[in-house]
Amino acid sequence: MNDVPPEQILWYTVDTDRAVEVLKSDRQTGLMPEQIARRQAQYGPNELQDMGGRSSWAILIDQFKNIMLIMLIAVAIISGVLDLLDFRAKTIPGDIPFKDTVAILAIVILNGILGYVQESRAEKALAALKSLSSPRVRVIRDGKTSEIAAEALVPGDLMLLETGGQVAADGRLLEAFNLQVREAALTGESQAVTKQPQICLPEDTAIGDRVNLVFQGTEVVQGRGTVLVTNTGMQTELGKIATMLQTVETEPTPLQQRMDQLSQALVTGSLILVAIVVAGGLILSGWQNFRDLLEVSLSMAVAVVPEGLPAVITVTLALGTQRMVRRHALIRKLPAVETLGSVTHICSDKTGTLTQNKMVVQAVHPITGSFRVSGDGYAPEGEFYSVETSSKSTDRPITVQDHPDLHLLLLACALCNDAALQKEKGDWMILGDPTEGALLTVAGKAGLQRDQCAFQLPRVAEIPFTSERKRMSVVVERMKAESSRTTIIPQLIIPHSSSPSSLILFCKGSPELILEHCQYMQRGDRIEPLQSAQRDRILSHNNQLASCGLRVLGMAYKPLETLPSEMGEDEAEQDLVWLGLVDMLDAPRSEVQEAVARCRTAGIHPIMITGDHQLTACAIAEALGIAKTGDEILTGRDLEKASPTELEAHVDRVCVYARVAPEHKLRIVQALQRRRNIVAMTGDGVNDAPALKQADIGIAMGITGTDVSKEASDMVLLDDNFATIVAAVEEGRVVYTNIRRFIKYILGSNIGEVLTIAASPLLVASGGVPLTPLQILWMNLVTDGLPALALAVEPAEPNVMKRPPHDPSESIFARGLGAYILRIGVVLSIITIALMVWGYNYTLTTYGVEDQRWKTMVFTTLCLSQMGHAMAIRSNSRMTIELNPLSNPFLLVAVGLTTMLQLLLVYVEPLRNFFGTHYLTPMELAVCLGFSVLLFTWIELEKLVMRFLFKRKIED
Ligand code: ADP
Ligand code: MG
């Protein structure tokens, strides 16, 4: 049979039988374990080779595109030229020529490499995050349906496709039900293609027309299918063009963009400053001071620019994503880290996010009475009890077979179902939708196993469930031979039983809707017309169940003449026979109530959006604290009637939206956004994608979400839990607060440096510039940089979730940040200038004009002051003594380390030569220390004064 190697077969030209044969697979059982192992060894994992993200070179080159670094390079060159002139004039023994130039260039390169390392790590971290959300697929292997990682697929596997899934490998379709696939990733065509397994195509068929194949990376927008995997990994059509894909999204965050603007502004500002100083100096004193002026201005230029800042921001954001993933929130787009902190509304699905999504059927209600169901979880073990008030024997289980209508209702549960029940390690689990899992379980309790039922009544057609239709139907065929034998299938009593039809349609969905489509009802073993009084009774029963927070489904059936594809969906679902209601409990998640309360104190509005009944929604919303009794509820129908402006008027008050379809979600987001809110919105289905894209934070479900929704999202909830969203918001706020904190810290110091340098020519006549560009770089990168990194991991302050969200469009300098930087910069410079004046006169009188140790005192004081600043800035409202010093051990280490490094610069001879510092006596060092403590004291006093003035703690 192996005349043609499988790799060379054009799969769209062969029929399904031949394809199965070539790949030595089996339509029913799939591959056997030993085949799988062999093929995994032969073909390797089903993954695209890593072409991820920017190339290393691109990342490295990007580092040097930074305007701050370009300016530093210019400074290096100018100071090199100055050195060259000096070198010609006089050679000072022991002096290293071009020291500053070399050192600055070394720092530029080092900074570039550091930035490169940070960014590559951040990029890798994001790539790792992405693989965490790598898709899983359902396959048939060894006769069993199971879920495996997409990487484990091999040619010959039977892969099951369902709505919303991403196709994980190339394959030949064996079966398809209404299967529509969007192949934009491959063909660029956004219109979905309807797939047809039966046909064979000619060899010259273009890729977009190969309707009997599916391709990796494409999306199932509707329907189901079974696929024989033919190619995996790099052998797939997508693999052949894989270079364009797998990009990790590292778009700059709004803050990073604004920081880029800021650094440009600072560079421009510093160039203007240089021009002013040089020009002013020239006008005042002429050319003979040009050299000094140039030195002053170079130092100022270096001092203004916060060289260390971009790296610290990158690291902080990356650390933020890591903390979030530890709390089960997976960030897909970096800007989300920041935006999360400003979220004002969280719109959440009910089922699975606010509730546990562990459905258990409580009772079934055919026309003739209600039956309570016992048993826990998904185990199909339990009994049915009649809850008829008239009956006295409520504690004795009934026999389902004695109640034909109940039996038929349960059969509908088993057949109109796409889920599967499995026993794994003694636990019963479901594969698929929990709502359907619950129905399988209850049918199983009556001895109706899906597989057995489906064997006797095989499915021939289906109309799938969508959140818009809120119902689903299947058509099964009665085996003629089977019907005479005694089987587990009840003898169906169907009108026109004389007709040759052996097709039956089962339908389930939202009770109101199903009931609208019913003309008859099943009472016992008879079919009766459905009177309007009975209709009302069923509806009020439905409302009564829903208002207890139960999820209620309606069931119906009818015999069919022809398959629905030939007669149209709507027609098929008309004139149904009503079977009854099934109610199931989906308990609220226990941790959600507290998370909702945290939202409230944090000024965030939690909103429930659900396809479920308004009364069910309301009951659960009240239990969770999302809504109060009597709150306004909007339904999908209300939304349809309301104009955008009307909706806008309501949107601030409504906390619960019920019976909505995915397209309504989009309208809700838009209305909220027009009211200038920042909206986070959850979603799981294919049709949720537009709303997820529109929302400021689109959140996909990690467990139940479709690949399509994940692709559209900014964040994925690994545990599908509402509480995780709130945790992510908290982390987002912490990240934003910390970024603001070290911006204050770094820029405050820069202003201090600039003012000190600017003051020196005025105050210390002919003393020269107190700080060389090299020393300033050292401060900006090392002695400011290390503590800033430590401040980036400062734990949350107690009030992060006790204040309203901030407007994300606010300036970086908003809420007092700009004022703080100026104020602290001025205080720092006053302290340093005071020290400088004292130190200069002291040096002059003690050591003489030639001695320059006052410069080292200025340098040391600036550095040590910043250590105090770092300690004090940990909290804006609490005094440092009120904080636990060990809650940020990194800061202690950073401050200790930096102080030590600074001392090494003063006390180690070679370093002293290199950095141009001088030896300080212990007394002189003590003076520096004394001055340095002043800044810390000032900040602490500020906090105290603010506390007394405003009788409240300052906001962070
Ligand atoms: P949500 O996920 O917000 O609870 P859905 O859109 O999933 O809402 O469901 C909306 C309604 O559709 C449900 O209240 C139920 O009546 C019906 N429904 C849900 N799942 C199914 C299903 N698998 N088959 C048929 N009907 C369903
Ligand atoms: Mg749902």
TrEMBL record:
PROSITE patterns reported for this sequence: ATPASE_E1_E2 (PS00154)
Gene3D superfamilies: Calcium-transporting ATPase, cytoplasmic domain N, Calcium-transporting ATPase, cytoplasmic transduction domain A, Calcium-transporting ATPase, transmembrane domain, HAD superfamily/HAD-like
UniProt keyword Cell cycle present: no
Gene Ontology annotations of biological process type: export from cell; inorganic cation transmembrane transport
Subcellular location: Cell membrane
MF terms in GO: ATP binding; ATP hydrolysis activity; ATPase-coupled monoatomic cation transmembrane transporter activity; metal ion binding; metal ion transmembrane transporter activity; P-type ion transporter activity
Superkingdom of the organism of origin: Bacteria
Membrane topology listed for this record: Multi-pass membrane protein
Pfam families noted in UniProt: Cation_ATPase, Cation_ATPase_C, Cation_ATPase_N, E1-E2_ATPase
Regions crossing the membrane: 64-82, 102-117, 265-284, 296-319, 742-764, 776-796, 817-837, 857-874, 886-907, 919-941
Domain Cation-transporting P-type ATPase N-terminal: residue ranges: 10-84
Assigned keywords, A-Z: ATP-binding, Cell membrane, Membrane, Metal-binding, Nucleotide-binding, Translocase, Transmembrane, Transmembrane helix
GO cellular component, one term: plasma membrane
Keyword Isomerase set for record: no
Similarity comment: Belongs to the cation transport ATPase (P-type) (TC 3.A.3) family. Type IIA subfamily.
NCBIfam families: ATPase_P-type (TIGR01494)
The protein's name: Cation-translocating P-type ATPase
Organism: Thermocoleostomius sinensis A174
